[in-house]
Amino acid sequence: GIWLDAEAASLRAMRQKDLTELLMTEAEIFEKAGYRVGIYTNRDWYIHVLDIGLFLNRFPFWVARYPLMDDGTMVARLSPKEYAEAWQYSSKGKVKGIQTVVDRDIDYGYEEWERNFTIALEVIAGKWGSASTTPSRQEQLTAAGYSYKKIQNMVNAYYCARTRK
Q1: Distance between CA atoms of 130 and 127, rounded to whole angstroms?
Q2: Full-model pTM
Q3: Burial of 10 (C-beta count, 10 Å sphere; 0-12/13-18/19+)
Q4: What is the 3-state composition of the chain as percent helix, strand, coil, each rounded to the nearest 5?
Q5: What is the pLDDT of residues 83-98, one digit of tens each?
Q6: Which of 4, 25, 80, 153 could crosslink 84 through cysteines, CB 3.0-4.6 Å?
Q7: Which of 29, 55, 49, 45 is nearest to 117 (CA)?
Q8: 154: nearest Cα among 109, 114, 127, 107
Q9: pLDDT digit string, tens, across residues 100-110
Q10: What are the pLDDT digits (tens) for 6-50?
Q11: What are phi and psi of 60, to 5 degrees?
């Protein structure tokens, strides 16, 4: 697949609407050519710059997030696994046989993201009840073997993006 890198300073200066159009146009070109497309960005851009609600409907995310004192060690509490398919946890990693520092990443797997995304769309459509239904949405999702937290985070990101406008 192809990951569109969305974190250049020149892109940040764009209006959110224009940036979204640019990334969507690029993604559609690659999709038409038969590639799977995702969005690579850092956590700040994920939260403050991109229109996540529009992208969540179509693309997985690969999020860069590591500590200020990055020494190549993975810091589990910074993991974006609840909302991303992959995580760049360091830009100062070391690999035997490579003389320079390298980025270090974890791929959580597209299949899990796609499955959760499909269920999140069903939740948005009202097919899994609510917190007040019996059984509750959380109980239904958990009983069906899904991660309530992961799916609810996708749903929340969708509604958060819609209310930011």
Answers
A1: 9
A2: 0.69
A3: exposed
A4: 45, 15, 40
A5: 898 999 999 999 999 9
A6: 80
A7: 55
A8: 114
A9: 999 999 998 77
A10: 999 899 999 999 999 999 999 999 989 888 899 999 999 999 999
A11: -80, 160
